[in-house]
Amino acid sequence: MEFKKGLIDKQLQGQLSSVFQTFDTDKKDALTLPQFQTYLYAIGMEFLNKQYSEQVLQVLFEGKENKRVTFNSFFMFLESNSIHEYTPEQFDKDMNIFDEDRNGVAVIEDINRVLENYSELSEDERQRFVKICCLGSKLTPEQ
Questions:
Q1: Tens digits of residue pLDDT in 57-100
Q2: Cα–Cα distance between 100 and 52 in angstroms, integer?
Q3: Does one domain contain both 80 and 95?
Q4: CA 143 – CA 136 distance, rounded (Å)
Q5: H/E stretch holding 36
Q6: What is the residue range of 110's domain?
Q7: Are 124 and 41 in contact (CB under 8 A)?
């Protein structure tokens, strides 16, 4: 595995794009605001909905809730507003948080424990987060 500092690497970009396409249920190569908000939740960037919703609406949706955002627009926004650092040290630090039994794997129980202890999400929000991650676009509104 290649570790590097700097902007989001191609592998992560591909993963983010694949998940984006999963939430593009009407196959328009762009997400509506509600689809985009669910997408952010699924990829662990719910903070953009909570702390930067006005900036996201203005920049990505041109201030209009009925507009759509493409993956390329989102990715350029993300690239210009963040730095991705993925180093062996960061990986070890993350695993120290998630991998409680030190077996080298972060299973769903580990993720639930971390969400419970370190996030501000309610129990319902945590359960919904896990469902979205596991089911993606197969998630029905009732779930």
A1: 999 999 998 999 999 999 888 877 765 566 777 778 888 888 88
A2: 32
A3: no
A4: 11
A5: helix 33-42
A6: 87-143
A7: no
